[in-house]
Amino acid sequence: AQSVTQLGSHVSVSEGALVLLRCNYSSSVPPYLFWYVQYPNQGLQLLLKYTSAATLVKGINGFEAEFKKSETSFHLTKPSAHMSDAAEYFCAVSGYKGGSQGNLIFGKGTKLSVKP
Amino acid sequence: ETGVTQTPRHLVMGMTNKKSLKCEQHLGHNAMYWYKQSAKKPLELMFVYSLEERVENNSVPSRFSPECPNSSHLFLHLHTLQPEDSALYLCASSQTHTPSYEQYFGPGTRLTVT
Question: Nearest Cα to B64, choosing from B45, B43, B41?
Answer without folding.
Answer: B45
